[in-house]
Amino acid sequence: GGFNPNCKLWSHQGFNYSVDLYDADARIAIEVEKSERKNVSDDLLKFQKGYRTKKDGRPKIEFGCLVVPMNYLGRHNLYQHSLTKLDFMKGVLFIDDVAVIGYHDPRPD
């Protein structure tokens, strides 16, 4: 997302934040986590900010998707953490829906 200007949804406001993938017609933003670092809260805040940022009278982000690895051996299961964090924040997230998709990281542990 960092290199694609279409993913920099707030550049017109002077912010350099971006999402990894963005479909402007469908108003869907996708964030792909590639490490065990827990950036889920940051991702959810981007979705929220996108919902509050309008273009042509509609939110820039109406749907979010988190894609997270499921196979880390550390004590934190990022997939389960994402589901728990989303469940916790649902009451303050004004966005139509957020999907969480788990993937198997093929790199050796």
UniProtKB/TrEMBL annotation:
Designated name of the protein: Uncharacterized protein
Pfam families: Halo_RE
InterPro entries referenced in this protein's UniProt entry, alphabetically: RE_put_halobact
